Amino acid sequence: MPRNGSGVYVPPFTFTADLAFTAARFDLRFDDLEDALNDLPGPAGILRYVSDSATDPTTLTEGSFTVTAGGVWKVVKTVSSVKTWVDITTGEPVDLTPYALNSALAQKAPLDSPTFTTAVNVPNVTSGDSSTKAANTAFVATAISTAVSALKDGVSGTYDTLAELATAHTALSATVGSLSTSVADKSAKASNLSDLTNIRTAITNLGLDNLLPYIVESMTVASPPGSPTEGQAWLIPASGATGEWASHANKRATWVAGAWAYTTPTDGTEAWVKDTKAALVYAGGWRDKGTPVGSMSPHLGTTAPDGYVTASGKSIGSASSSATERANADTARLYAFLWDSFGNSVCPVATGRGASASADFAANKAITLPDLRGRSFFGLDNIGGTAASRLGTIITAATTNGASGGTETVTLTVDQMPDHNHGGTTDDEPQVDITVKRSASATTGGGAWTLSTGGTVQSGLASSVPAHNHTISSQGGGLAHSNMPPAWLGTWIIKL
Known about the structure:
Layout: E1 19-21, E2 25-28, H1 30-39, E3 46-51, E4 58-59, E5 63-66, E6 71-79, E7 84-87, H2 97-106, H3 137-152, H4 162-184, H5 199-205, E8 214-216, E9 233-235, E10 252-256, E11 259-263, E12 270-273, E13 278-282, E14 286-288, E15 296-299, E16 308-310, E17 315-317, E18 326-327, H6 332-341, H7 357-362, E19 367-368, E20 409-410, E21 424-426, E22 442-445, E23 448-451, E24 470-472, E25 481-482, E26 491-495
Parallel strand pairs: 8-12, 17-18
Antiparallel strand pairs: 1-6, 2-5, 3-4, 3-6, 6-7, 9-10, 10-11, 12-13, 13-14, 15-26, 16-26, 17-19, 20-25, 21-24, 22-23
């Protein structure tokens, strides 16, 4: 069989050397190549193909195969004894250096973001090195161990692992969350309780209700108000309360969280009533701590201050009454006081008195106030229970509360006049001569002369003097005089 210049046998092969294509299908029959394989020098070889773009020759198998990459393809046989490749189409050795390089490069990782398929050995780095050098597992393990030891820094075994710390952190987070919610509901220390939502509720919770004064809207409202605001409070009347308040006489009713809260006062509990400006103290019942209801006093102004009305003879009553001095719920206490203290002749009730003061007030009847316009105020003659009899007959009902008397002027009677003399003249009358023998002293008596013993008695009656007239001058005009003492005027006011 022919050989080439190097003495290598060239088989009668139908392949064309250095076939170039981008894609082709080859039908290989090993019986066609058997002779060529066996005739090549050296031991039996393995039929392979390579391409310019291949990284390693691929073993051919009987049948067909499809070329999937472009380039020049060669069919070669490896001769293991001499480790050469021979192109069976030419019988020439094939330089596989490019293919070997490609194969070697395929096993290498790129410098830019390399990916390694097996473990990589990296030189050790000095502990503590913070440069950009690659760190091996020993360096990393040492660094982690050192960091963990520093992090633990003597921490007990309970919290020396991340798992334990994570568990503790979860529990702590829950505790902090709960604590934050709890703290949000607390009063700020610097606020000194000024940030409390409802100071009255706080006082109740602290048990200080009866140590601090009640601040209430009124003490004359008998039925629960329809639209109270949070924290508003009232003193429930001692009698006559209705609705939900009916069984809570004298208690404080406070509107808290949509319901009435009741506080029972104890002796000494104080209260301030807004509508009547009254200061009260509890002693078995509510009493005025300051000026009692119904107290009357002089006032330098011409109108009544808050918590008072004038003693003008006008009237007071409920807000729906026709009262002329004050029509307001805050008059209820004075209304009851006047109703109980005076009869209808002194303080008449419009359209007549009913069963009680509270009934008349609720019926919107007005009651008349005392009228002290241009009048002085005197004490009852029997203050303290014993009559002093100092008012004589000027005020006939001197022991009756609200009685009146006296007059602005008076005309004196004769009996009331002081002793006095009247000037006058008499007419001239004839002289009467009486001659007696003077032998002793003479005296007169009973209008007659009488001579004592020692001479001749002669007598005569003085009545023998003729009648005559006396004239007395008239004085006075018969007019009344004023009883007004020196005065300085103001306004009488009465406490609601």
